[in-house]
Amino acid sequence: FVLASAIQSQSATPAKEWEPIAPDAAGFAATRLAAVHAWLASLEAIHLRELTFREVSRSLRALSATYVERRHTLVDGAALSGRGKRAAFALFYGPLHHLLVAHIVRELPSALDRVPTLVDLGCGTGAAGAAWAAAVTPPPRIVGLDIHPWAVREAAETYRTFGLAATTQQRDIATVTFPKGRAAILAAFAL
User: Fold this and answer.
1) 3-state DSSP call for residue 187?
2) Residue 149: exposure state from Cβ atoms within 10 A (0-12, 13-18, ≥19)
3) Is the model's pLDDT at 22 over the cut of 50?
């Protein structure tokens, strides 16, 4: 897991040339909580529409076995190879990724610095990028990159559900050219 708040800058101006406006803490927290609830409800509506909880549970065990026992198959897309595994990934790992990154971002002093762009490498469901972007005021524009077409679509829906400006692209993160200027880089669970 890599979370880089390393800010790229092409200018000589100091990174903190702005004064943040402190949002109403209770209102901000309520808005974030409502967005998370809407996202979770959306995940359930989408992924449990054609699968039972039992099927998703069985797929979660298969997905976990893929990560632990058959890591060599990950390169071929085995983790997201079926509808059940994709549902398990979205419903189980997506929320965990969101919670973990939201907590990490709150604890890293420079992670909440204002940046125009957040590059979400290996974005998966978009949960980690959404957690970071939603914690920043104003939220940065997200560029979500993943090699798997399902992940790209899932991330786009996650960003949309959180009301975040984003673009997603199917790309191999090993060949990414980073944006010029200031940007936050996130590689959560991708390396």
Assistant:
1) strand
2) exposed
3) no
